[in-house]
Write a structure and sequence with these properties.
Order of helices and strands: HEHHHEH
Protein name: OmpH family outer membrane protein
Largest sheet: 2 strands, parallel
Shape: rod-shaped
Keywords: Signal
InterPro entries: Chaperone_Skp, Skp_dom_sf
Pfam family, one: OmpH
Strand order of the largest sheet: 1-2
Number of domains: 1
Number of strands: 2
Strand content: under 5%
Signal peptide: 1-19
Structural class: mainly alpha
Amino acid sequence: MKRTQNGMLAIFVSLAFLAFETVEARAQQLGIPQSVILTIASERLFAESKFGRRVARLIEAESAVLAAENRQIEAQLTTEEQELTDRRPGMDADAFRVLANAFDEKVRQIRREQDAKARALAQQSDNARIEFLNAAAPVLETMMRDAKASVILERASVFLSANATDVTDLAIARIDLVLGDGAITEQDPDQ
């Protein structure tokens, strides 16, 4: 009886070891390091993902439009200021001051409007990053489980680590598979 129990124990230990090896081998096949701590370069994660590259192109295009608009407004204001300056010698000082103050207020209003557009563009970029991180979280959580990790730390905040704990490239590849570029198409409005 004791011999049978020892045999069963040996079989159980062997099966448990094989199961552990299978999980370990699966994780290694997936390219995931087995570590309780993983690191990731979050800036690179966003910037090099399809999602991040799409957002960067969009923000760059909208920034170019805003810059062109600012140059056009600047040219118009320069022309208007020159016309006001040219009219000054033939005007009463008080009448000129009224026009000059109105022009200054117009310039301040335009500056506020253009600054608001620039802030909205920056906010759009920040919102896209938040959207990306929220959408990427399940992918990163799966990677943590596969690696048997308990935490993913920002690579830049880690003083020293083995390069094997950096899963940024793998995370980018997996996130690209799941999210693509993150664009919502008209054909699939439920995304």
